[in-house]
Amino acid sequence: MSLSRGRVLITLIAIVAASACLTGGAWIHHRFAEPRFNEPELPQEFRALRNPFAGDPNAAEEGKGYFLKGCAPCHGPNADGHGPAARGLDPAPADFRFGPILREHSDAYVFWRITEGKHGTAMPRWNGVYDARQRWTIVTYLRSLEGK
Ligand code: HEC
Fold first, then answer.
1. Residues 72 and 116 in one domain
2. Are residues 60 and 108 located together in one domain of the fold?
3. If both were cysteines, with which of 47, 94, 99, 117 could 125 make a disulfide (CB 3.0 to 4.6 Å apart)?
4. Whose CA is nearest to atom 41 of ligand 1?
Protein backbone atom coordinates (compact mmCIF):
# COMPACT_ATOMS: atom_id res chain seq x y z
CA MET A 1 0.00 0.00 0.00
CA SER A 2 2.53 2.60 1.12
CA LEU A 3 4.97 1.31 -1.51
CA SER A 4 2.55 1.88 -4.39
CA ARG A 5 1.70 5.32 -3.05
CA GLY A 6 5.39 6.13 -3.06
CA ARG A 7 5.63 4.95 -6.65
CA VAL A 8 2.74 7.13 -7.72
CA LEU A 9 4.43 10.10 -6.10
CA ILE A 10 7.76 9.39 -7.79
CA THR A 11 6.01 8.99 -11.14
CA LEU A 12 4.24 12.32 -10.69
CA ILE A 13 7.47 14.09 -9.79
CA ALA A 14 9.15 12.55 -12.84
CA ILE A 15 6.35 13.73 -15.12
CA VAL A 16 6.51 17.28 -13.78
CA ALA A 17 10.31 17.38 -14.06
CA ALA A 18 10.22 15.94 -17.59
CA SER A 19 7.62 18.43 -18.84
CA ALA A 20 9.58 21.32 -17.33
CA CYS A 21 12.67 20.13 -19.23
CA LEU A 22 10.85 19.38 -22.48
CA THR A 23 9.32 22.85 -22.66
CA GLY A 24 12.72 24.38 -22.01
CA GLY A 25 11.51 25.78 -18.71
CA ALA A 26 8.80 27.81 -20.47
CA TRP A 27 6.26 26.16 -18.21
CA ILE A 28 8.11 27.41 -15.15
CA HIS A 29 8.66 30.89 -16.61
CA HIS A 30 5.01 31.09 -17.49
CA ARG A 31 4.00 30.25 -13.93
CA PHE A 32 6.29 32.87 -12.46
CA ALA A 33 5.80 35.64 -15.04
CA GLU A 34 4.53 38.87 -13.50
CA PRO A 35 0.83 38.02 -13.53
CA ARG A 36 -0.52 41.53 -12.96
CA PHE A 37 0.40 42.52 -16.50
CA ASN A 38 -1.48 41.45 -19.58
CA GLU A 39 1.07 41.67 -22.39
CA PRO A 40 0.15 39.30 -25.21
CA GLU A 41 2.50 41.05 -27.65
CA LEU A 42 5.60 40.63 -25.45
CA PRO A 43 7.83 38.03 -27.17
CA GLN A 44 8.44 34.83 -25.22
CA GLU A 45 12.20 35.38 -24.97
CA PHE A 46 11.64 38.66 -23.11
CA ARG A 47 9.02 37.37 -20.69
CA ALA A 48 11.38 35.77 -18.21
CA LEU A 49 13.70 38.80 -18.06
CA ARG A 50 13.93 40.69 -14.80
CA ASN A 51 15.46 44.11 -14.25
CA PRO A 52 18.85 43.46 -12.62
CA PHE A 53 18.84 47.05 -11.25
CA ALA A 54 15.24 47.27 -9.98
CA GLY A 55 15.03 50.03 -7.38
CA ASP A 56 18.75 50.89 -7.58
CA PRO A 57 19.07 54.71 -7.40
CA ASN A 58 22.61 54.70 -8.86
CA ALA A 59 21.41 52.78 -11.91
CA ALA A 60 18.47 55.19 -12.24
CA GLU A 61 20.87 58.12 -12.19
CA GLU A 62 23.03 56.50 -14.88
CA GLY A 63 19.95 55.71 -16.97
CA LYS A 64 18.80 59.30 -16.69
CA GLY A 65 21.95 60.36 -18.54
CA TYR A 66 21.19 58.02 -21.46
CA PHE A 67 17.57 59.12 -21.45
CA LEU A 68 18.41 62.81 -21.65
CA LYS A 69 20.76 62.13 -24.54
CA GLY A 70 18.84 59.56 -26.60
CA CYS A 71 15.20 59.77 -25.60
CA ALA A 72 14.49 63.31 -24.41
CA PRO A 73 14.48 64.76 -27.96
CA CYS A 74 11.16 62.92 -28.44
CA HIS A 75 9.96 61.92 -24.98
CA GLY A 76 10.97 65.24 -23.43
CA PRO A 77 13.51 66.12 -20.74
CA ASN A 78 10.71 65.60 -18.19
CA ALA A 79 9.67 62.33 -19.85
CA ASP A 80 6.18 63.72 -20.46
CA GLY A 81 6.27 63.08 -24.21
CA HIS A 82 6.87 66.69 -25.20
CA GLY A 83 10.40 66.73 -26.59
CA PRO A 84 11.49 69.23 -29.26
CA ALA A 85 11.44 66.49 -31.93
CA ALA A 86 7.97 65.25 -30.94
CA ARG A 87 6.20 67.87 -33.01
CA GLY A 88 4.04 66.29 -35.69
CA LEU A 89 4.71 62.67 -34.69
CA ASP A 90 1.64 60.46 -34.93
CA PRO A 91 1.35 58.64 -32.64
CA ALA A 92 3.03 61.09 -30.28
CA PRO A 93 5.91 59.76 -28.13
CA ALA A 94 4.81 57.99 -24.95
CA ASP A 95 4.24 60.16 -21.88
CA PHE A 96 5.93 58.43 -18.93
CA ARG A 97 4.63 60.98 -16.43
CA PHE A 98 0.91 60.89 -16.94
CA GLY A 99 0.45 58.12 -19.50
CA PRO A 100 -0.41 54.50 -18.67
CA ILE A 101 2.76 52.81 -20.00
CA LEU A 102 4.58 52.30 -16.71
CA ARG A 103 1.46 51.42 -14.77
CA GLU A 104 0.29 48.88 -17.29
CA HIS A 105 3.58 47.25 -18.22
CA SER A 106 6.37 45.20 -16.72
CA ASP A 107 10.03 46.17 -16.80
CA ALA A 108 10.55 43.32 -19.29
CA TYR A 109 8.04 44.95 -21.65
CA VAL A 110 9.63 48.40 -21.40
CA PHE A 111 13.06 46.79 -21.97
CA TRP A 112 11.71 44.97 -25.02
CA ARG A 113 10.31 48.18 -26.52
CA ILE A 114 13.58 50.03 -25.99
CA THR A 115 15.47 47.07 -27.45
CA GLU A 116 13.35 46.56 -30.58
CA GLY A 117 11.45 49.81 -31.05
CA LYS A 118 7.79 50.05 -31.96
CA HIS A 119 6.80 49.20 -35.49
CA GLY A 120 4.55 51.75 -37.19
CA THR A 121 5.71 54.59 -34.92
CA ALA A 122 8.79 56.83 -34.77
CA MET A 123 10.09 54.81 -31.78
CA PRO A 124 13.49 53.48 -32.92
CA ARG A 125 15.22 50.30 -31.80
CA TRP A 126 18.10 50.89 -29.42
CA ASN A 127 19.74 47.52 -29.67
CA GLY A 128 23.25 48.29 -30.94
CA VAL A 129 23.14 51.86 -29.63
CA TYR A 130 22.80 51.23 -25.91
CA ASP A 131 23.89 47.81 -24.66
CA ALA A 132 21.57 45.65 -22.52
CA ARG A 133 23.05 46.98 -19.30
CA GLN A 134 22.47 50.57 -20.37
CA ARG A 135 18.93 49.77 -21.52
CA TRP A 136 18.11 48.30 -18.09
CA THR A 137 19.40 51.44 -16.39
CA ILE A 138 17.02 53.46 -18.59
CA VAL A 139 14.14 51.20 -17.52
CA THR A 140 15.21 51.76 -13.91
CA TYR A 141 15.23 55.52 -14.45
CA LEU A 142 11.74 55.48 -15.99
CA ARG A 143 10.46 53.35 -13.08
CA SER A 144 11.94 55.84 -10.62
CA LEU A 145 9.63 58.52 -12.09
CA GLU A 146 6.52 56.65 -11.00
CA GLY A 147 4.54 58.56 -8.45
CA LYS A 148 6.57 61.74 -8.93
C1 HEC B 1 12.31 59.79 -32.74
C2 HEC B 1 11.50 59.92 -31.55
C3 HEC B 1 11.74 58.94 -30.42
C4 HEC B 1 12.91 58.67 -29.75
C5 HEC B 1 14.28 59.26 -30.00
C6 HEC B 1 12.58 57.71 -28.72
N7 HEC B 1 11.25 57.41 -28.77
FE8 HEC B 1 10.26 56.11 -27.55
N9 HEC B 1 8.54 56.40 -28.61
C10 HEC B 1 8.40 57.28 -29.66
C11 HEC B 1 7.07 57.15 -30.22
C12 HEC B 1 6.50 57.94 -31.38
C13 HEC B 1 6.42 56.13 -29.48
C14 HEC B 1 5.05 55.52 -29.75
C15 HEC B 1 4.00 55.92 -28.78
C16 HEC B 1 2.73 55.15 -29.02
O17 HEC B 1 2.74 54.10 -29.66
O18 HEC B 1 1.68 55.61 -28.55
C19 HEC B 1 7.39 55.72 -28.46
C20 HEC B 1 7.11 54.75 -27.52
C21 HEC B 1 7.98 54.38 -26.51
C22 HEC B 1 7.66 53.43 -25.47
C23 HEC B 1 6.33 52.76 -25.25
C24 HEC B 1 6.02 51.73 -26.29
C25 HEC B 1 4.62 51.21 -26.16
O26 HEC B 1 4.49 50.06 -25.87
O27 HEC B 1 3.66 51.97 -26.37
C28 HEC B 1 8.77 53.33 -24.68
C29 HEC B 1 8.93 52.45 -23.46
C30 HEC B 1 9.76 54.22 -25.24
N31 HEC B 1 9.26 54.83 -26.35
C32 HEC B 1 11.01 54.42 -24.69
C33 HEC B 1 12.01 55.18 -25.30
C34 HEC B 1 13.34 55.30 -24.78
C35 HEC B 1 13.82 54.72 -23.46
C36 HEC B 1 14.06 56.03 -25.67
C37 HEC B 1 15.53 56.37 -25.62
C38 HEC B 1 16.45 55.27 -25.45
C39 HEC B 1 13.14 56.42 -26.73
N40 HEC B 1 11.92 55.88 -26.46
C41 HEC B 1 13.48 57.20 -27.80
C42 HEC B 1 9.37 58.14 -30.15
C43 HEC B 1 10.69 58.13 -29.78
1. yes
2. yes
3. 117
4. 71
The residue whose CA is least distant from atom 40 of ligand 1 is 71
Q: What's the predicted TM-score (pTM) here?
A: 0.82
Which of 62, 87, 103, 118 maximizes ligand 1 atoms within 8 Å of its Cβ, making it the mutation to test the pocket?
118
- DSSP letter for each residue of the chain: -HHHHHHHHHHHHHHHHHHHHHTTTHHHHHHHS-TT---TTS-HHHHT---TTTT-HHHHHHHHHHIIIIIHHHH-TTSSS--TT-TT-SSPPP-TTTSSHHHH--HHHHHHHHHH--TTSS----BTTB-HHHHHHHHHHHHHTTT-
Q: Decide if 104 is inside a domain.
A: yes
User: Considering only 2-11, 12-21, 55-64, 119-128, which range has the smallest mean pLDDT?
Assistant: 12-21
Dist. CA 23 → ligand 1 center (Å): 33
Q: How many independent structural domains does the chain possess?
A: 2
89 lies in the same domain as 121? yes
In the chain, the percentage of residues whose pLDDT exceeds 70 is 83
